[in-house]
Design goal:
The chain is of the alpha+beta class and about 230 residues long.
Length: about 230
């Protein structure tokens, strides 16, 4: 690892750990206040603190993931999983989040059983990043998770697609979204918040599980992220 990457990794790691303890305390007390307060105005303030702290925690987790990636210090534990079950559980988990924005979220599969070797924690983070983005960038319509299988380079692979009907990504921006700290909406006046690390971390995690990820998008029509993982049986 060169000096610049080493310095970046040390900075991200130190900052993330330094901020984690106070944020955990804020989250804890904000949760207690939200449950105990009855005054509507004060309860709304507690909710804002809670949501903001959760968002900051997500950012810290991404910084830690990026730090581990840069330092090549990522532990990968691959275990056999039936992907219909994994994706169905994920869809059920995120349906309430989508419904909160009046969006539909559905899962469909054209295969009865398909087994892949995945790292549970990594795959969970991948789906969290992709679904959070899909929900954030979609105002009307919905999100669909689909599972199929296909032959790719002579190997049968599970094909997982996360499609949305959101704002889409311009063709010139599609080449940079997987780069660390890059976003479609950049600069001080960008419309959507975020660290710009989610898709960079996602791509690396997919590759660490011997997978591939692609994006296809059209402005104002939506985006589809496609992942391919080898089928083991």
């Amino acid at each position: 690892m060169d000096d610049s990457n080493k310095m970046q990794s040390m900075f991200l790691d130190n900052m993330s750990h330094e901020l984690r303890t106070p944020i955990t305390v804020i989250l804890g007390y904000a949760g207690i206040l939200y449950e105990e307060i009855e005054d509507p105005d004060l309860k709304e303030m507690a909710e804002i603190i809670l949501k903001s702290s959760n968002r900051l925690t997500e950012s810290l987790n991404l910084l830690l993931d990026q730090s581990e990636i840069v330092s090549n210090n990522v532990d990968v534990t691959l275990e056999e999983r039936e992907m219909n079950s994994v994706l169905s559980e994920t869809a059920n988990l995120y349906k309430p989040v989508a419904l909160d924005k009046n969006l539909n979220l559905e899962f469909e599969s054209s295969v009865d059983e398909v087994f892949c070797k995945i790292d549970d924690k990594m795959f969970e983070k991948i789906m969290t990043n992709l679904l959070n983005n899909a929900i954030k960038f979609t105002e009307h319509g919905g999100i669909k998770i689909s599972l199929t299988s296909e032959q790719n380079n002579g190997i049968e692979k599970a094909k997982i697609e996360i499609s949305d009907t959101g704002i889409g990504i311009s063709e010139e921006k599609q080449s940079l979204i997987f780069e660390a700290f890059r976003q479609v909406s950049e600069g001080m006046n960008r419309l959507y918040q975020g660290t710009g690390l989610g898709l960079s971390v996602t791509k690396k995690f997919v590759e660490l599980m011997d997978g591939e990820i692609f994006v296809k998008s059209e402005l104002e029509k939506g985006t589809t992220f496609t992942m391919l993982f080898p089928i083991i049986k």
